[in-house]
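User: Sequence in, structure out. Go.
Assistant: Echoing your sequence, followed by the structure tokens.
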Amino acid sequence: MKLINPWENIKIKKIGNKEVIQNFDDDIHLLYVLVGELSVESEGSYLTLQKDDFFILHKSKSYTCHTGDSKVFQLSLQYFYSEEDESDPYSYYFTGDSVKNTHSSDMQVTYLLNQLVELYIFKEQKRISEIFEVYFNLINTLEKKYFVKVQLESDRSIKQKVEEVKFYIDNNFDKEIRLSDLAGKLFVSEQYLSKLFSNEIGLSLSEYLIRKRLEKVRKDLFETEKSVTNIAFSAGFSNINSFNRLFKKYQGLTPSEYRRESKKGIEIQSSPFAIPNEELTDLQKYFVEEEEGNSADKLKIDVSESEDFDYDKYLINLGYAGDLLHTSFSQQIRYTQEQNAFRYGRIWGLFNNVLFEQVGDEFDFTKVDEILQTVLDAGMIPFLELGFKGKLIHETHTKIIKKEPFELKTNRMDGILLRFTTFLNHCIDKYGDEEVSKWIIEIWKPNAFVLKNTDQEQLSLIEMNDGQVDISQYPHYIRYFSQISESIKRIVPEIQVGGCGLSLDIERGDMRNFLRKWKQEKVKPDFISIGIYPIDEIKHGYVVEKRANPISHDEDYMLNKIKDIRTLLDELDLGTKLYVTEFNVTILNREIVNDTAFKGAYILKNILSILSYCDLIGYWQLSDLTVTSFDTAKKEIFGGAGILSKNGVPKIGYYAFKFLKKLGPKRIFASENLIVTRKEKQYQLLCYHYSHLNATYYYDTIGGFHKNNAYAIFDNEQPIDWTIELNGFEAAGKYRITKYSIGKNNGNFLEEVNAISQIDHFDKEMIQYLKQKCVPKIEIQTQIISDDKLVLEIHLSPYDICLFDIQKVSD
């Protein structure tokens, strides 16, 4: 089969010292440092790149490259983005670098850029299909990780508004831009926007737009032989006569005269991207030497350099408060906390009148005390969600297998405040002010969609002094929250009170307006709490040909959502913490995905990617025991979302958190599926092999997957083999390396159950046997470090998670 020339889609050019780069097309342009150092100057700011660093160039922006003798390349990737929806308010662009705005995928981009340069240097010896494979892998990675959207917003500061307008013009100058449209998007008058822009930039908006268009015209006149008319239209000018007048006004020459004068004495290169033969030979020699000393799967990490790493942010959803009254469940909680994996234990439903009974003005604290003591005895800090939420067990998003409704004693605001104040005064008397001050209280905003599905819409209706309000509506919730928070803070001033359990998959619409309104209130939340379940469709009608309850195909769904809301909070300057109080791959508790080895890598991938964006991360949920019903009486495997089975057998998710807890407070290195940390003189290396759901899952309309064919719904990834060289150790000598590994072929719950029997209803003896089998494999070896180097050979099959603990021992 004959393929087109890939180098028509990929342009690679070696950058000279003090070379100026300015690109006006919509392709993706990157700078990549193969050897040496690069300083990039633009608009008075500098960015320094070292070997294997990269930087994505922005459209129409001018960059001066100070390279010295370094080997630096510009890679230009042909790219087409189709804006199918003209009403889409966003502008899309690529951005990122491996220095200032680091990302977990930086190592992957660096590797692919290095491959592309090498393929170009040896292009006569390489297969076309091999080149296209790298090209499309790079495009795919950039689209998923470095493709962002920007929308002109009305609630920005003056400086932000002007910067956004400037950025919008820089990226869209070649399209029709009207001042009235820009002003409309920002909800300001044309005159006001024009004045703001002129004051900040020093040019009027129309003047800036003309100059930006003329920059592209001059570049095309000098570098191409396109007709003047085509050049003018491609730069955004719609009338050739007015263009000619403007060009002569600014340049003092006609376009044709400028082209002729600018090219005088210039030797036109037949191939401007060609590398001289002598330099090409040097580059080929470099890659050959690199190939002999390294492989694509070899990684060198200097352990002497590190940064602070705040990793103790883990919360576990214990469940509905009433479940903690069961002895078997409280035993599972204590078992989980033997490793102190979780700092907080979250419960809800504590104010249900069934648990916190009230007769007149008298309260019975018997059950409440037992529930709280169970959390405290496990060494966890209580995280109390004190909204009107009962217990639901989902088979699908709209089918509920079992529910325990919340019983509200009174819907009068004064009665609700009495419950809060009485509860807190009792807790201080019993546990002390110092202890209670550590607790966290979350006030849930009832979700109208959830209440409707559970036939409890009346729970959102509260009787205030001036009448009935619906606290599922944002303005009424804010008022409700303020009164509760003030009452709590009068009793325990240091306690954290926040809300409101926003579900990012079904409450996206008015979030910005809601948070902006909340910022204006006197009483603000100490934290914003959110829940994330990667659901593509939930409220609206489903596509018949596809699965009715799909998990998003976007494997970075959670990261993208967190980045969006973190950006929103920063822009609004709300000054509050961000807590992810609930996350999982699905809210369902009858989904076989929950019992596969996939969940270990899923937890590690998502937690490690969002740690820097939030202040607390809560997994949903601890145990399958809390989601059992009539349909699970004779099953140990039924797709429950817990990290423990209903009889307390640990699943791979349990060990994912156990591994996370072993990390140190100093981060040495982090990439997409690998992190290295340090705790004093002890080193930890945690890695995983993530594989996402495939098309089979999305087009399975009848849910025909079970414990024997569960892995058919995942991508068929190849194993990962690494050689990792750690250097920079403080002392030579003997080091002990303890390896903990668990995965599909080693210790995972689902496979160990299948190995015993196709019937998974087990007696006490078999449950004890499974607890002993569902553990990581442990291997111990020693290495003598005499040349400041320790080498690890790592093999990861899909879904494997692996922890290495390295420490110096006596000889």
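User: And one key feature?
Assistant: Residues 536-549 have pLDDT under 50 and may be disordered.
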